[in-house]
Amino acid sequence: SVDCRQLVLNAMENQPYVTADHRLLVEFGREIVRGLEILARAADIDHVMLAVDMRRTDDYRDLLTDTEDDSIQRVALRPKYPIGADNILLKVLTRKEVPCGGIPADIGAGVIDAGTCFAAYRWVACGQRLNGRVVTISGNRPERSGNFFVPFGVDCGGLVQADEFSIIIGNPMTGLSSQGDVVVSPACNAILAIEPTPIGDAAPCIRCGWCRDHCPARLNVAALNDLYELGQIESAEKAGTLSCVECGVCSYICPARLPLAERLRQLKQTILRMRKTMPLFHESVGSQALRENA
């Protein structure tokens, strides 16, 4: 069993274009706070926090006026990317670090978003189950931009009329590129029609160290890229690949234009797949790490 002692509503949308949670809090702030209270009461959690962007505190100033007590602590944080990542946000709020390859529950915390709280309120208080979510439709190509409630299963390409160019599902830094052959799901918070910028071919790593210096998880990204190219999955796991929060900063900052974020994402997926299909692989890595630390 997991002993979860803290529940955090993560409303730190600090990427360009995406404002779905912000719009929900502005229009349904009190309902979302009620939903947060419902989830905390159901999980028997006393310490509840609402983390918002300090630039938008005026829009959320009355969120807690209807609560019976001050059980929900509201925190306004500077929108420094990638503070919206769950593991990074928990490190800032609790001073505790999620273990490599672990989840927030490993440090006794849970992180949810505004859409989940709103859905919980509508289900419990109103008896209505939501069959969609608020999605940001934006970019420099769509004819109509804004935040819209979109039913699940709607074709993403049709929403932005992206017939001749690809779209991004999710945030611009961490989203997935698609040709429009995907549908809206509970995890889809944005559909961005952004015309891709030609960046040219990738060059060999010049060992500048920028990726390592800017990594919020303090990973040696250049070394992990070497392990990716050499196919050394076991060494990549020992080097802490699973601590990557997939923020995309390494790819953005790389002067050689290497797809570092995508490579680390592939490394993580391979390691997790091998853990499931090859249990001895994880045991051998763990035992070897213990011998090295002894």
Concise summary:
With 294 residues, this protein is α/β, with parallel strands linked by helices. The protein has 10 helices and 9 strands.
List the helices and strands and how they pair.
Blueprint lengths: L5 E6 L8 H23 L4 E7 L18 E6 L8 H9 L14 E4 L1 H11 L7 E8 L6 E6 L4 H5 L6 E3 L6 E3 L11 E4 L16 H5 L6 H10 L2 H6 L10 H5 L6 H18 L1 H15 L1
Parallel strand pairs: 1-2, 1-4, 2-3, 5-9
Antiparallel strand pairs: 5-6, 7-8, 7-9
Helix pairs in contact: 1-3, 6-9, 9-10
Could you walk me through the main structural features you see in this protein, from its secondary elements to its overall organization?
By secondary structure, this protein is α/β, with parallel strands linked by helices. It has 3 domains: 6-124, 3-Layer(aba) Sandwich (Rossmann fold); 132-193; 210-293, no CATH class. It contains 10 helices and 9 strands. The strands form 2 sheets. The chain has a 5-stranded mixed sheet with strand order 6-5-9-7-8. Helix 6 crosses helix 9 and helix 9 crosses helix 10 (279-293). The chain starts with 5 loop residues before the first strand and ends with a helix. The model is unreliable at 289-294 (pLDDT under 50).
